[in-house]
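Final report, section 2: Outcomes. Of the targets proposed, ABC transporter substrate-binding protein is the one most frequently requested by collaborating groups, and we therefore present its record in full.
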Amino acid sequence: MTVRRGLRSAMLAAAMTLAALPAAAATKISFYYPVAVGGPITKLIDDYVAGFEKENPDVKVEPVYSGSYQDTITKVLTAMKGGDAPQVAVILSTDMYTLIDEDAIVPFEEMAKSADDKAFLAAFYPAFMENSRTGGKTWGIPFQRSTIVMYWNKEAFKEAGLDPEKPPQSWDEMARMAARLTKRDANGNVTQWGVQIPSSGFPYWLFQALTTENDVRLMNEAGTETYFDKPQVVEALQYWVDLAAKQKVHPPGIVEWGTTPKDFFERKVAMMWTTTGNLTNVRKNAPFPFGVAMLPEKARRGSPTGGGNFYVFKSAKPEQRDAAFRFVKWMTTPERAARWGIDTGYVAVRPDAWETPAMKAYVADFPAAAVARDQLPHATAELSTHDNQRVTKALNDGLQAALTGAKPPRQAMEDAQKEADRILKAYR
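The predicted structure is given below as tokens.
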């Protein structure tokens, strides 16, 4: 009895000691997320974070909504120099080389310890991994990824005497259809353009769809060379310029990225090229029946991939790296990749996401959701090089000079190539 009473007393004392100790502090990680597309994205992210924390009570995730993709990488690099980098962020897949050159991120192989972890790194569509791997290492995990697709107003097609179920399949066909779809009032002012390809925000990206379709790449796999002055590149730019200047079926000058969907909803344009990330936005807001199609071809089908990857930062402590990796894996399970695609319109980034019951039901109800997935076999890596911001600016400046008539396409591309060569010389 005395022994039992003594044991009881010891256990009670131990329990009281444990109760007096503070609970183990949760590992805190900062998560930079770019809000760059319309819709209640921040609420979605908040809900995802709450779900992760519920299942992982030892981790506290602090989302930081950091503006556009451009704002986000600027803020991340500034914070890093100040010793306050986030532990995880969603940044453009094309900024991979910049982040590597800044010694900012760690390859996921350093965090993937188990067989399941290693299988996770191989779970994504190969087209998305082209902008996520280099030098045999995985630097980014695809999250909100996209391709460019064509949306068309079926009512406008019907009014123009076109089959509303048949979008253009080639460049020539798109130009011919756009001529029939362009409407003018009694004074000759355009009330509806046939086609609209945005040239602000991400002009290089939309242009890369044209160059891909003309079967030419804009850069090498090492990110050390560009090919802006190749004849097929110039030809692609000439086609874009001619849609406005010669055929007058496309708005002249610079077309705003952000307002293009609104122009489509307001029937100011009958066909638009934009990201699959706008799919949910279009579905909710288009006041007419619409279609979604792969982009028309010239020499081939094609679109660059686009969008953001998860990156984990080198300055994170070991326990923060572990927490960040768990968060990335949690956010990109097949079920959540499917849910994110359904909620936003981005392409679900792994094949098994399309086999989930939720995604199967979604595609059965809304077949247009599968167009971007079906375009992936024709997709190429988005323009990405060392010193990517400056190289991309050189191309964007050239594109805008050609589209505004300041330079002919050939000169614009030759000048852009000279500037890219100057920038990339140090990396060869």
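The longest strand covers residues 141-153.
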